[in-house]
Amino acid sequence: MTIILKTDPNNPDPLILDKAAKILRSGGIVAFPTETVYGLGGVVYNEDAVKKIFWAKKRPIDNPLIVHVSSLSMLEEVAVSIPEKAYLLIERFWPGPLTLILPRNPKVPRIVTSGLDIVAVRMPAHPVALGLIKKTESPIAAPSANLAGRPSPTSAEHVIRDLYGRVDAIIDAGETIYGVESTIINILTKPPTLLRPGAFAVEDLERVLGEKIYIPSFARGLGEAEHAIAPGMKYLHYAPEASIILVEPASQNIESMVEKIKTLASSYLEKGVRVCVVASTETIEKYTSLKIPILNIGSRSNMFEVARNLFKTLRKLDDLGCIIAIIEGFEERGLGLAVMNRLRKASREIIHV
Ligand code: AMP
Ligand code: MG
User: Is 72 in the pocket of ligand 1 (CB under 6 A)?
Assistant: First the structure.
């Protein structure tokens, strides 16, 4: 049984938060909105609750969970030997979509960190998430509230679609704000390492740190789908049912990208395959002659909008029954890095033009 608790995102109903906190304190698991995507939470110290999270999501146990806190004292409860650099970032970016890798306090069960001696921690800025952690009076372990491998949920409808009947409650407070997950930084390395690009741009973190952050190729989403691999061979993330082909423009050569997508789409159309295109505000008009579903993911000059629409658009492809979806690539600057990381990981094939 799953109960749905509806509330206002900006002024969450205290009775709703109480109800959800009570479920969490008694070992249940609750999906709730954060400013990035919806999370699926359980009390971090309750191993059974944490096991339920992995079960509900069908998540491999070697994929660790982020611990969510609502105060610095909670942070110091789950992490130890916190370096000065961490506080530098915390002061500027918390509460907000920044996750820090820190030495794990042995109080945190190993299942949360998949056996690692480091723990990922963040303080969410969403009033519902923050309010819920405060009411529960405990750090909450929470991955994204989707089935493993699927696009992350940016609305309660997405959570209901994936997890209804598998979790105790879902708090519905409308759409999330950023639409991509938190930026994850390991500040224990020299220089700090980006583990996952997210809602806060790396460039902004670097300005506060006063040093460059190392960006390994896996953080750009490269390594797996770089070369076309036979369908079904690759481990996909954030993926809809539709097979995604990503067309990346070299040095923002938008025109050849559009031409390539049109040629590809036509060839699938000729074979009788239901093909769809994900375009941008600037290019959408160029595909109208194809007479196939064309989705607008947002403007190339507003990556905040593109990030916000990203997972919603991927899920929409399935609603439209697309078998193949050809998606335009974006520049890796600012939020573009997070967008391209997700798109590359969701793709069956990447084509450079
Ligand atoms: P999700 O909450 O579904 O966005 O997934 C959380 C992600 O955070 C994981 O997939 C890991 O990449 C990362 N993460 C969580 N805990 C750790 C950790 N202890 N060390 C390194 N990465 C982590
Ligand atoms: Mg996830």
Answer: no
99 C-alpha to ligand 2 centroid (Å): 13
Residue of the nearest CA to atom 10 in ligand 1?
63
Residue 321 has pLDDT above 60, yes or no: yes
131 ligand 1 Cβ < 6 A:
no
Confidence at residue 235, expressed as pLDDT on a 0 to 100 scale: 66
Helices (runs of H) and strands (runs of E) counted in the chain: 10, 15
Please report which ligand is nearest the Cα atom of 114.
1
Residue 36 CB–ligand 1 contact under 6 Å: no
Summarize the confidence of residues 242-269 as an average pLDDT.
95
* 109, pLDDT greater than 80: yes
Best CA proximity match to 152, nearest among 45, 246, 33, 42: 33
pLDDT of residue 227: 45
- Out of 65, 117, 122, mutate this one to test ligand 1's pocket (max ligand atoms within 8 Å of CB): namely 65
Structure-block tokens of residue 109 = 């069960």
Is the CA virtual torsion 340, 302, 240, 125 positive or negative?
A: positive
Region(s) of the chain under CATH 3.90.870.10: 3-220
What is the whole-number distance in angstroms between the Cα of residue 307 and the centre of ligand 1? Answer: 20
Q: Quick one: what percent of the chain has pLDDT higher than 70?
A: 97
Residue-level pLDDT at 252: 77
* Ligand 1 binding pocket includes 78 (Cβ within 6 Å): no
What is the reported pLDDT for 229? Answer: 43
Superfamily of domain 3-220: DHBP synthase (3.90.870.10)
pLDDT 10s digits, 193-237: 999 999 999 999 999 999 999 999 999 998 754 444 444 445 689
Where do you find CATH 3.40.50.11030 in the chain? Answer: 243-352
Classify domain 243-352 at the CATH topology level: Rossmann fold (3.40.50)
Q: Write the CA distances from 289 to 140, 188, 325, integer angstroms.
A: 50, 53, 17
Ligand that comes closest to the CA of residue 153: 2
Whether 17 and 6 have beta carbons less than 8 Å apart is answered as: no
Phi, psi of 307 (to 5 degrees): -60, -40
